Structures
1.
Amino acid sequence: MGDKLKVLVVDDSLLYRKFLTEAVEATELGEVVDTAPDGRVALEKLKEIEDIDVILLDVYMPNMNGIELLNIIAKDYPEKIVIMISGGSADSAQLTVKALELGAMDFILKPSGDDLEKNMERIKSHLHVLFAQILTRRYSEKLKEIAEKTKDVSKIKDRERDTIKPQVKRERVDKAKTVKLCSVDVIVVAASTGGPSALEKVLMELPSDIQVPILIVQHMPPTFTKMLADTLNEKTDIFVREAKEGDEIEAGLGLIAPGGYHMVVKAEGTKKIIGIEDTCRIHGVKPAADVLFESVADSYMDCDVLAIILTGMGVDGTQGVRALKSKTNCYCITQSEESCVVYGMPKSVYEAGLSDEVVHIDKIGKRIIDIIAGRA
């Protein structure tokens, strides 16, 4: 993959700076070139050290907090990648969601509890996935630059495919199942890393009088999903809120699965009702899109379902889309690789042969409108 990522750790706690430094080094994909106790010092470091790739940025700090520094980075250092460090409080969650809107790649929760080893493994694993994605994208971009300079496009594409995109045999899709919807009974959405920004782009395109319910799974911990729902409700024309037990699914209502729980759909007569379950994690996450999608497959049997798989790491959503395709009239859109922060979940669905259409994030909202209007 090449050289390790150069990382700047910014946190007002010496203990956390040391902990995060160890976590970065443990990934073996990054190295901490410096640390800073607040935003002002970090800004000076950015001026002094030109080759910083990634900034681990605390939300709350004296002198200049994480949001203030992030605004400056977005303007003056747009090539730098920012990963927020957040606490679990409501205030931290609100600011972290704001940071994701401003362009932060992702966030990690500060260590909690007394199990230092478990906390280190959790944060190291999360950073490892993010760093690997950054390095892969960087390497891919270098290959494209070489291709343009040498004009030997075919040779470079072969190298890129062999190095970064190993051949994966896609499952054959039953042509009878690959249908274009003439109507939509429900829209289901799955998102993870990079999801808050992607969700905003999609939902902002939808009109207030949309006559379809929207059920969303965004991988986030408790409190964060509530803040995300409130933010999306304020910034979009549709009504969005965090789901709760017993909610009736209604046209024009967007419901986001609450962090730390699985969201399911249950049929009660002619009504569809939300259920909230505190069961085991699936793919290491809770809520999981697979849980929601499989319940929708049972509750909306033979109905028209539009599934949207947005940016995110892992494979959550693939099994759920497979269930939807087997029991409902499901059309699936996956976000394009170049517009994903992490091309994991959409890639998994695509390589399983379950994606009917690959769309850039900027155009997914319009595609939803076209499909609902029968212009698919």
2.
Amino acid sequence: MRKLRIGVAGLGRAFQVMAPAFRDPRVELAGGTDPRRPSFKGRCFDSVEALCRSDIDVLYVATPHQFHAEHACLAAQHGKHVLVEKPMALSLEECRRMIDAARKGGVQLLVGHSHSFDLPVLRTRELIRSGAFGRLRMITAVNFTDFLYRPRRLEELDTSRGGGAVFNQAAHQVDVARILSSANIVSVKAQTGSWDPDRATEGAYAAQLSFDDGAFASLVYSGYGHFDSDELMGWIDEMGSRKDPTQYGHARRTLDDSKRHVPRPLAPQTHHQHFGFMIATCERADLRPQPEGVMIYGDTEKRLEPLPAPKIPRAEVIDELYDAVVNEKKPLHDGEWGMATLEVCLAILESGRNGKEVPLRRQPKSG
């Protein structure tokens, strides 16, 4: 079995969350680089360019959002495949440069992780496409977190540099909505909230997406650290770990200068990851992806379709990456996919500013 050698650009929180996936026997963590020089047991490089010149097969771009395009293009120029964190970039023009660079370099470009990789979401997609429950008509997604009060770099609180809830969080809900549907999103109507002058970026949004087959999706997100929608998920957190509800308000309590850059360690994952409460409404059933499987609310009965517990976190990302690089299978979450998702996120911001419905023009088919 061929093993993919992965180099990591950016060794911060995104990498820490993704790192357990690199225990997969199909990949090897072959090096990393970060100007902050965090504790890293692997081979360290002085720059992203030096890492790209090494013997890695794939560059995982987990640098701050404003550097995604630069580092992805650099990797492609050195003949390295690219796995880039969401959001893919900060503009559609940057996305196009990344896509063109990957094509010119003859390499694969994948965008993730987002929660559209989660196995319960993928199983929900299969159930919808089976036709057993009729056509998909509506998607409802709700997530309330403490996002805005977790440890943040300055640019993460500056929308112009890719900060805020829309750039950081909306891609999850948008990706899930797109992966469940086989239609195009044609327009977005949204409102955004920026309610804390000390953290003056979007902390909340509500968006309605219209699909060209008549279906629609309602996406609601708040990161202001009050209600915690993990309560609706059996106190399983986003990372698939059991959560202690008595720790309510932890993020706000620890938001001081001495602890600003000390994120909480990750707890062991026991369930599938998720991004809050979500229901896919079909003509003859509501389907609800959950940490342990998919709840099916049919005409006359409700039942859980269980899924086996994950052995390796985010193994689905490695599945898609490995298939793309080794088996030359076109990835679902490719550059065109990532650009289409960013277009929706940018439309949420635009609609939130001007109060108008925003038509979309760069949406490929979702499936």
3.
Amino acid sequence: MRVVHVIDSLGGSGGAEHGLVREITRFSPSADQVVVRLFSKDHLEAELHSAGIEVVPLGLRSARAGWNWPLAVRRLTGVLRMTAPDVIHSSLFTANLVAQHAGARASIPVLSTFTLSGDPRLLRRFQPGAASWRASLLRAFAARAARHRGVWFRALTSDAKETNARLLGVDPDRVTVLPRGIETDLIPGIPLSRRELDLPADAPLVVNVGRQTAQKGHISLLTAFEQVRREVDSHLLIIGREGDATQTIRQFIRTHDLGSSVTLVGYTPYVHHYMAHASVFVFSSFMEGLGTSVLEAMEMKLPVVAYGIPPVREATDDGRLARLVPPGDEAALAEGIIESLADPAPVDDARQWVRSHFAIDTVAARLESMLVEMTRRP
């Protein structure tokens, strides 16, 4: 099987890029693979080259994605002529749109991924420009392309399946739910010490992982943590790249005098070393694809407190394996953190649940099988 994977970028700032790389580098040697990126690159491109996977850049600017996607279709069509794949696999909105149009032109089947929720309320709230006329026009183009007979879908969650099928008018029978896979045994060897990580020597650690964007709910988390620190001497670590909410987060920390109790770690390759010292993992996101860091916390046997958004409910077996509270209920989030700090015992079967449903090798094998099946569709 020869497959062309199409993705917006390899910028390394989000779970979609990491997830794609993790999965396709686990494919069997019989899979002949090429990755086409529409926009920027980063260290993930080097990982693909190391795995022997060619990366073809289309050289477009992400800031003009709403205007230059037809050019991307033309350029991708040219790549398809040269590579002659059996199937196209795409991930993220613009890549899906471009891959579906190019696939229809070249009569090549396409498997596209629904990553985030398609709930219009969430899109308007957390996706810049989602309520604009341009975004509405793009969704109309996307809906038309998505209904082409050669296009099928993978959704990371049942919620992503249902909401995106409804948004684009796609038959749900054309959508298969397959979550992202995660690595197991996340820390090879012994974790770095608190001293090496510049952490407080004794305070219980509450850890959050997520890029500093509005949808990750960091202001809501910080508001809850104000209540936590009044009752429990603890320290909050927020791990993740800077984003459009960084200045707001920093201002909140200064205004509420949280500087001695909160550390913004930023990007680090040692995420799981920090998590190894955590007493509680907290997740305050309002919109997610899957919530991979929740799965990683469960893999590490950490108690999880989170807003009970649909993807997180699915990741935690409908909340059985975590303390879930209503999204936006900061008092309930604080109470959940306090209770978990008082009784930090892990849920015994959380790791087994993760390994049974989300192990990367199993997920990658299923995805490869889906792509092979696509090549056999009439």
4.
Amino acid sequence: MNVAMITQSYYPSLGGVTEHVYNLSQALRRLGCKVTIITSGPDREPRDSVIRLGINVPFPINGAIVNVTVGIGLIGKVKAVLRRGNFDLIHIHCPLEPTLPLAALMAAREFEQPVVGTFHMAARISPAYEVFGRILRRYAQRLSVRIAVSETARRFAMRYFPGTYLTIPNGVDFKRFNQNKGIPHLQDGHVNFLYVGRFDPRKRVPTLIRAFKKVANQLAECRLILVGSGITYPQCLAEAGSLLGRRILFAGKVPPEQLAAYYHSADIFCSIPGGSESFGIVLLEAMAAGKPVVGSDIDGYREIVTSLEEGIL
């Protein structure tokens, strides 16, 4: 089967959607499918399996910074890619979000292939959907199958786009994260706390740093390792203060092939976002590496962790 996977978020951008698309495409390839990822951003490393259209522009929404694709004639460009690719299936992630996913859904109307839409978002309310929901519901009818990555995501999607959804949770490559190879210089007897993710306001990384500093006052041999980047990075640097470089380490963006090593260098994984999360793929990654997790007591996380059983919320 020849599959077109359309997503606004993909490497080098970090996040749950990126990881979902990467894992799903790899799994489909192992099953013998051909997968082409159609995404945005400059083509720094051209590959046959990744086609990039337009450029990424960061845009704040729901306490996070998301990618929005900007480019002239996106619908026509997507049509041209779909026509050349001769795909059997078109799979659009976040299909009703501007701009690339919605452009792809509009372009797909001219083709007979089935169109799958996976809904990743969860929020208390969407101002854009409140205003444009009636128009977008017409485009939603083009979807042959609707998938939600969690019950939290399904409830949010149902609020604006009623219909039938399959709930298929995010998955991770267990073999990838269970390799049991850490980073030597981080395995020096310290108790390592690890965070992996974007430095978005919703992720509350400065709050995590403040919490760690309280732990560090009581536990001499401990360290906080922060993997990722984002808009609150300067605030996080300032919050680290005198512990920067000694007890609090900023690893920056880590290539996918190196990420498992950070999990295996950790003793405890922490992620304490506020607001809404549709899932918590980093929790799965940490658990696949055999690490205990501490997370926020929010809907998306409750679908993965029962507090005091798989972890602590």
